[in-house]
Structure of Guided entry of tail-anchored proteins factor 1:
Amino acid sequence: MFLLVLSTTLSFISVHSSFLGKQVLKWINRPSEKENKLTTEKSKLKLEQDQLNMTDNFAKYSKIQRRINIIDKELLEYRNEKSNITLQLSLTYGLKFVLGICLAALSIYYRYSPVLKVHSSVDLTPFNHLISYPNESNQVSFHFWVLCCSSIARLIKF
């Protein structure tokens, strides 16, 4: 039972590691308190600017626009500091690599341990050797189970 749950979980996680990496990146790159403060200040200035007529109050309108531009530059600087391409690539491909190594190591370690034992009344005749290799017949091997779970996980889209 342990092998069944472990192999299924690792297979699904390795296939959908890019989705998990994106979620972690969203959490890491969430807006800081200062960014939230600047964003709310910008929205207040925009509302104030929308209430003004540009032709009648051009000086006040342009003064507000200059403050908005300064806030935009600050926000752009904060976002550029956070968007680290190395972190994005290492999370996406690093997770795939680590899980791939884990699955390969587990496949080697548990190659003689069946994940499932099929009842003898079920006949898997044409594919019995492929499914059970290197175990006895009517047993599902670890690497075959990982292959099946990975194939099914690719069909499921998040």
